[in-house]
Amino acid sequence: MGKRKRGKAGSTPKIPAGCHHYQDIANVPWDIQKYYHQRHSIFSRYDEGIWMTDDAWFGVTPEPVALKIAVHLAEAAPAEKAFVIDVFAGAGGNTIAFALSNRWKRVYAIEKDPQVLACAKQNAEVYGVADRISWLEGDSFEIMPKHLGELGEMAVIFASPPWGGPGYRHDEIFDVSQMQPYSIDDLLNPLQKISRDIALYLPRTSDLRQIAEKATSNEKVNVVHYCMEGASKALCAYFGALGNHN
Q1: How many CB atoms lie within 10 A of CB 34?
Q2: 3-state SS class at 156
Q3: pTM (2 d.p.)
Q4: Which of 120-153 are b and which e, b meaning 16 or more Cβ less than 10 Å from the residue's Cβ?
Q5: Is the model's pLDDT at 62 over the cut of 50?
């Protein structure tokens, strides 16, 4: 994802509690060992000091997918859009990709877990883009209207929410109205008060009819599947002006 800016000798930060830079599979909890084996697909610069919490492994967007989404978002956004808001920043995979695109005047990233946020900040340092990102800690739906509402007309929103809920891993078609802790309406209703130009990162089996129903009469929703090694990993639903881009 681009070249790293080298820090001063001896400036490697101490890893805080709850964050890890695993280097030996023997130290990795069994339930994330699968992800650890894929670490260089998740962050190609993992060996340079990437931090992760144990839970963050489950939600981070793999780097090739994050980079492709960043390209699509940059191309689809109207020229007057100068900012991107990453509503669920996690360990920073998408946030870093947006910063690397050089499309945005500023990237705003929100994360409510302080340990995960510490990882995201470190990972942005590894990729040399920390100075392009403003980090906000807390609940996205409280922070956005209070601190980012004035950006609305100049911003696009990217949201990669948790995918909890019955059937996510097993149902042939995933009911996004039952997604937990946020259904598709729980996401779109408050986000559209800030900006109608929204990209939602959703499970690959998400019900496309439910997604299409969220478009207004004069809008389209553009749905793009993102694949690795020939298999779909997830999809993005682009709303507002983003959905009208071909």
Answers
A1: 10
A2: strand
A3: 0.93
A4: bbbbbbbbbbbebbebbeeebbebbeeebeebbe
A5: yes
